[in-house]
Amino acid sequence: MYAQTLDTANTITDPNYEPWTEISSNDQHVHELDMNDPLFCEGDDASFIYEVLDGVLSNYRLLADGRRQVISFAYPGDLVGLGGETHHYNCDAISSVRVRSIPRTSLLSAARECPELGHKLFQMATSELADMQDSYVMLGRKSAVEKIASFLLGLARRYEKDGMDVIAFDLPMTRSDIADFLGLTIETVSRNFTKLRMAGVIDLPQSSKVVVRDMLKLEELSEEDGSTF
Amino acid sequence: MYAQTLDTANTITDPNYEPWTEISSNDQHVHELDMNDPLFCEGDDASFIYEVLDGVLSNYRLLADGRRQVISFAYPGDLVGLGGETHHYNCDAISSVRVRSIPRTSLLSAARECPELGHKLFQMATSELADMQDSYVMLGRKSAVEKIASFLLGLARRYEKDGMDVIAFDLPMTRSDIADFLGLTIETVSRNFTKLRMAGVIDLPQSSKVVVRDMLKLEELSEEDGSTF
DNA sequence: CGTGAGGTTGATCGCTTTCAACGGAGGTGG
DNA sequence: CCACCTCCGTTGAAAGCGATCAACCTCACG
After folding, report:
1. What would the pLDDT profile of A32-83 be if each residue is shown by its tens digit?
2. Which of B126, B138, B180 to mutate to test the interface with A (most CBs of A within 10 A)?
3. Residues near B129 by Cβ (< 8 Å), separated by ≥ 6?
4. How confident is the model at residue B228 (pLDDT cuts 50, 70, 90)?
5. Which residues of chain A have pLDDT under 70?
6. Does the CB of B143 sit below 7 A from strand C?
7. Could you read off the pLDDT of B111-121 as tens digits, one per residue?
8. B201, pLDDT greater than 80
9. Is the pLDDT of residue B165 over 90?
């Protein structure tokens, strides 16, 4: 059992309300990770859920022969480790990272006490599902260029949500991370970055910096279905 | 507002406990669909969530140019339509189907009253996430044979869960559905079914009936990562 | 500078797709 | 009852895209 000090006053109307911050702060700890440090591994007990405060992490799975598939990247504000009693994937820092750890049991029992928190958790799970469904279509049915375009567009939109620059931004992940996310090889990723650069769609002042020169073309290339939610 | 008659007695210990059956039955209706009937479409208001009683449905998305990606199949016991206020994918019956409709608002407000129900919903969402992560690795990193093997194995395991035959079972979906689920063409699916049959791994007494002749080989071919949860 | 990891580019290979023809099962009407 | 038709599935041949193998570049760091 975990000691908890719940205070549900004045929270629901706050747009920046993050319910898990209500969990007793002495259950929570901030951790710092360096680039490439693992946060947890597939099969580990999921004793903790983590809120990303700073930096980017990659969630990925490995096949027996070493093939790797990145399932998602986690950015500040995201929760990683949601799921069952054991983790179903590996999680590594791909930059310097700060996370806040929250004991899983304490989060779940807090959710029992506070329906708002429960609802918020449910919403986070379903929005993660919606994101994965988008990626799923991309992974299964898009060509290499379309995958790269979709990836860049998704990253831009993510940054936009945080009020950052949509036109010029950093790629926190390596070509290898991108390739393993898109189901391609690093060579194909590189070639298609070049292709987009040659077509005047983007610029690459450095290998980890993107400038979008033709957003409309990028959107066309990403072959989104009509719906915008 | 929906009238609700909640009865939380004697439920949690019941292994077959399905909390949404507690929602007032006059909010719920059983619907029958024929093969190929749509249940809902991308963009529709998600006024209802559906519990599959009988038959199989496919959840899929379409790209502007008609390319299709099946996101998941829904079997009896599954919930379809979980997510936001609008559906993010299409849902069609791929056989004769019976579903129970549950108003979304009534489900959500019931979850507010009953933490058990909320927790159950959260669990369903995270287990759906876990399933999608498996499929994600398959889609991104497995070869055509490996995809077919994984698919058959997944189907067998699903049937096993319902106490059905793991060795001989039906394929409720067409080659086209399978292809659009695995990110392949129908020709490639067909060729690899034949390949598995030639290798003595499976038998295909009819095009929609599978008999597993070498389960071990099938598991090997599916290239699962080591972990079994 | 020298070194090494990450990234780019080139040449070739091979798997999946594409295009095309055929086969078989189920349904309909003569 | 059978001829015909249509849809689904299978098989073959050829094309294309991304993977593989290999060389080279570039930049950060000692």
Report:
1. 999 999 999 999 999 999 999 999 999 999 999 999 999 999 999 999 998 8
2. B126
3. A82, A83, A125, A128, A129, A132
4. very low
5. 1-27, 225-229
6. yes
7. 888 888 888 88
8. yes
9. yes
CA atoms of B179 and A140, how far apart (whole Å): 10
Among the partner-chain residues B63, B86, B112, the one whose CB lies closest to the CB of A141 is B63
Residue B22: its pLDDT value, please? 55
Q: Provide the token pair at B157.
A: 């395991």
Q: Identify which of B172, B20, B140, B138 has the alpha carbon closest to the alpha carbon of residue B81.
A: B20
**Strand D contact with B142 (CB < 7 A):** no
Residue A228: alpha-carbon gap to chain centroid: 20
* Tally of CB atoms within 10 A around B144: 16
Identify the H or E element spanning A81: none
A7, amino acid identity: D
Contact residues, chain B, for A226 at CB < 8 Å: 64
Q: Which residue has the tokens 């504000």?
A: A77
Angstrom distance (rounded) from CA B72 to CA B59:
5
Count of all residues that appear for chain A in the document: 229
Please, which pLDDT band fits residue B202 given cuts at 50, 70 and 90? very high
> Who among A62, A122, A142 is closest to B125 (CB)?
A122
Residues in chain B: 229
Residue pair B147/B218 in contact by the 8 Å Cβ criterion: no
The secondary element (H helix, E strand) that includes residue B17 is none
DSSP code of residue B45: B
Task: Give the integer Cα–Cα distance in Å for B206 and B198.
Answer: 15
Burial (0-12, 13-18, 19+ Cβ within 10 Å), B4: middle
Residue of A174, A190, A183, A191 lying closest to A140 (CA atoms): A183
What are residue A38's DSSP bridge partners?
A92
List all nucleotides in chain D with at least one atom under 7 A from a protein Cβ: 8-13, 17-22, 27-28
Q: Nearest nucleotide (C1') to the CA of residue B191?
A: D10
- Amino acid of residue B20: W
Nearest residue to D11 (CA, C1')?
Answer: B191
pTM for this predicted structure: 0.89
